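Section 5: illustrative case.
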């Protein structure tokens, strides 16, 4: 289990090691051939994440873009989340769905899910990410199994972003047509983790850390990792997430992996971002990840503004969310700010984003065939 591996890593030692990297360390990494299948040593990853790498951003971006082009061609995967419910029994300081927030709660019925899905299908989406909060007795296995059973008839790829489940649950959902699972650790620092997860089952950090092992054991085809950028030092959290990825790749080598890059925006309502990530740092992070693992799907969120996404899509990501509503039924029932998880920064439609990508020489794709 990864929690055992994590116990061998010391946050403070790793932090010091990252900050001790020099310009020469960075130069050495950039002068060498980047291994094609994600074998960059951790010491090199630390150099790319370090403050010493900041002056080399242009060089990193060029290498990252070239590696992305070599692995993924000119494709850019587009997908959208479908929010099923904003019920949640947890209190997470940064989330609009937190149990302590007085918001309008809504769980979609099967008919409402199908209405929402029909709209997304008509828009052209083929890959859906189903999202719920954490109330297993209402939006747990039976609810998800029924919805996946119906949606799998119309969508070739169904993934979920839901609380950690047991192995038997993943197995049951795979039988209904589940393809992938995203489960972001938020932060790998145990102290910070407890500061931001105040109540509910999410306080159990080890349970969350070990859920990807359970997914891998059951043969989930794609596992999505990530940290919530802005909670802790992004350099150290990303290094730890890199350890998590490598651990999983070694144990579950047939699985594909993705990495999401959700960045808390300073404007998030009622929440002061503890360690905001500046735009330049964000670019460094994307390029460092691409050089660390040329094979992983790197996902750019609609939390970022349209202006920034137009530029960031060129430096190393190969997947983007599009046309996002972060409240249940946001497409079919109409937008409702009182039910939202967070504000999106890019409000463009799927067609507008696809046009922007085509103008930049990308082929937007709505179905990821890479796993076949
Ligand atoms: S982050 Fe997830 S678990 Fe936490 S309050 Fe939001 S929906 Fe619930």
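Designed sequence:
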């Amino acid at each position: 289990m990864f929690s055992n591996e994590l116990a061998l890593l010391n946050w403070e030692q790793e932090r010091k090691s990252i900050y001790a990297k020099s310009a020469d360390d960075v130069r050495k990494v950039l002068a060498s051939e980047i291994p094609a299948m994600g074998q960059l040593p951790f010491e090199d990853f630390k150099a790319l994440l370090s403050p010493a790498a900041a002056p080399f951003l242009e060089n990193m971006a060029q290498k990252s873009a070239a590696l992305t082009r070599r692995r993924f061609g000119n494709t850019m995967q587009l997908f959208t989340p479908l929010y099923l419910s904003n019920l949640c029994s947890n209190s997470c300081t940064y989330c609009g769905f937190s149990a302590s927030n007085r918001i309008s709660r809504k769980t979609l019925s099967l008919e409402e899910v199908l209405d929402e899905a029909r709209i997304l299908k008509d828009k052209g989406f083929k890959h859906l990410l189903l999202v719920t909060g954490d109330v297993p007795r209402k939006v747990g296995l039976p609810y998800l199994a029924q919805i996946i059973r119906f949606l799998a008839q119309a969508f070739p790829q169904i993934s979920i972003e839901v609380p950690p489940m047991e192995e038997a649950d993943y197995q049951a959902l795979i039988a209904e047509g589940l393809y992938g699972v995203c489960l972001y650790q938020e932060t790998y620092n145990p102290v910070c983790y407890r500061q931001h997860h105040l109540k509910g089952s999410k306080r159990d950090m080890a349970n969350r850390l070990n859920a990807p092992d359970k997914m891998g054991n059951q043969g989930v085809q794609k596992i999505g990792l990530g940290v919530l950028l802005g909670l802790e030092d992004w350099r150290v959290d990303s290094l730890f997430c890199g350890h998590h990825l490598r651990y999983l790749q070694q144990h579950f080598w047939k699985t594909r992996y993705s990495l999401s890059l959700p960045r808390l925006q300073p404007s998030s309502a009622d929440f002061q971002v503890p360690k905001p990530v500046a735009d330049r740092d964000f670019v460094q992070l994307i390029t460092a990840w691409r050089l660390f693992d040329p094979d992983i799907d790197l996902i750019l969120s609609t939390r970022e503004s349209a202006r920034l996404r137009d530029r960031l899509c060129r430096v190393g990501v190969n997947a983007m969310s599009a046309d996002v509503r972060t409240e249940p039924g946001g497409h079919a029932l109409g937008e409702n700010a009182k039910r939202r998880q967070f504000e999106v920064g890019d409000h463009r439609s799927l067609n507008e984003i696809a046009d922007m990508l085509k103008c930049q020489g990308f082929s937007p794709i709505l179905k990821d065939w890479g796993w076949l």
